[in-house]
Design a protein that fits this description.
This protein is mainly alpha-helical. The protein has two domains: 12-36 and 54-191, no CATH class; 215-390, no CATH class. The chain is built from 16 helices and no strands. The longest helix has 34 residues, at 90-123. The chain is globular, with a radius of gyration of 23 Å. It starts with a helix and ends with a helix.
Length: 391
């Protein structure tokens, strides 16, 4: 590594101001700071001393996503084997899943990286570090059957419209990965919803997700309906472990919780947002259960502990809602922000049968309101302090 560092240092003058390749300095700077910690120092106060920078924060999030990523690839192979009536080892399933997931990952990094570098060169600023995480999140929240060309278009939309037009990392209003998924859902709904898009399978094999089962049936109990599905084991424990069809990184709640522990231990994510989202979901689903006897809507019958492990709620609460750019900044605001995400997730699932997975829409909606939440939280603090000093 020391030899590589010397090579990079020798090339620096070529990319700095006055060098032959000065316009490509953002490209050089991105490679240098990803591989090695920056030795730059502030020239004037205030001085902030820390051993971690934005790139290191993003890398920690990538590390936290590794368990869900590896399991997602194994599950792709497992679901394909289940559809074909086969049994395979974990290693063989991982190999099958890797052949599906890695091209998706390369596409998102290539397309997103292209736009990141292009905007950095044109604007003459450093390459945004945020796409280290966004490029991995995008394929994890997509079904394995999504065509790559649609992923190219969606990643372009999510990167350019969801982030770069606002100024890049730190300026975007909405989570870029969720903007990408929303684009796919509304532009190509047939490739991200229904019962045939979640499993690499022979023609005619139904791959309905757990949330699609109670949403599609009138009358009866949702949990009973889940247990009546013969292709998949929709018991609570299996929903928690993740051996079910769904978006690649969202199925295993166990792997997501491992990632949450990493984020919380390193201080990268806010536990207030995560816990607030869970409390909001439990509250809303409890209210829905209370009114379920008076309605034929089976989504109202799903108990809180099932809502928690169904769909992409937990993945969104851990990796999306905690995005430090698009979430609330104040501690009280994070409680409100998280609680509303949980509440809206259940509300959308129960009220809108056309879209039973409400986590994406609830987080995007609260992204828009997070500045307003912080504004009133800060305003309330100021009023209380003024009242205290007036005495």
């Amino acid at each position: 590594m020391s030899r590589l560092k010397r090579v990079l240092d020798s090339l620096r003058p070529t990319f700095e101001s006055g060098g032959k390749l000065e316009k490509l300095f953002p490209v050089y700077e991105a490679l240098d700071t990803i591989l090695f910690a920056s030795d730059r120092q502030t020239a004037s106060g205030p001085h902030v001393r820390d051993n971690i920078d934005l790139k290191r924060v993003m890398i920690l999030v990538v590390i936290a996503l590794i368990p869900a990523t590896v399991f997602g690839m194994i599950n792709i192979g497992y679901q394909e084997a289940l559809a074909a009536g086969m049994t395979r080892s974990w290693g063989a399933n991982l190999a099958v899943g890797a052949r599906v997931f890695l091209p998706m990952l390369l596409v998102t990094y290539a397309v997103g990286g292209f736009w990141e570098f292009l905007f950095a060169v044109v604007r003459r600023h450093e390459v945004d570090e945020g796409f280290l995480v966004t490029g991995l999140l995008i394929p994890l929240i997509m079904p394995p059957t999504l065509p790559l060309w649609q992923l190219v278009v969606a990643t372009t939309f999510g990167t350019v419209i969801g982030k770069m037009i606002f100024g890049g990392t730190g300026m975007n209003i909405f989570n870029p990965a969720l903007v990408t998924r929303a684009f796919v859902f509304f532009a190509y709904p047939g490739h991200i919803s229904g019962d045939q898009v979640w499993v690499l399978s022979p023609d005619g094999f139904s791959g309905a997700t757990a949330l699609a089962v109670p949403a599609a049936v009138k009358g009866g109990q949702a949990v009973t309906l889940l247990h009546s599905v013969t292709q998949f084991d929709y018991s609570w424990w299996n929903l928690f472990l993740g051996w079910i069809p769904g978006s690649i990184g969202e199925t295993s709640k166990l792997m997501i919780l491992i990632g949450a522990v990493i984020l919380l231990y390193t201080g990268v994510a806010s536990w207030r947002v995560m816990l607030g989202a869970v409390l909001g979901l439990v509250f809303a689903s409890s209210v829905a259960n209370f009114f379920s006897p008076y309605s034929t809507n089976t989504m109202l019958t799903i108990p809180p502990h099932y809502h928690l492990v169904m769909g992409g709620f937990l993945f969104g609460a851990v990796f999306m809602a905690t995005d430090p750019v698009s979430s609330s900044y104040t501690d009280k605001g994070r409680w409100i922000y998280g609680f509303m995400i949980g509440l809206l997730t259940v509300t959308i699932r129960a009220v809108n049968p056309a879209y039973p997975e409400g986590a994406m829409l609830s987080i995007l909606l609260m992204n828009a309101f997070s500045p307003l939440i912080d504004y009133y939280v800060v305003k309330g603090h100021i009023k209380r302090r003024q009242a205290r000093y007036a005495k």
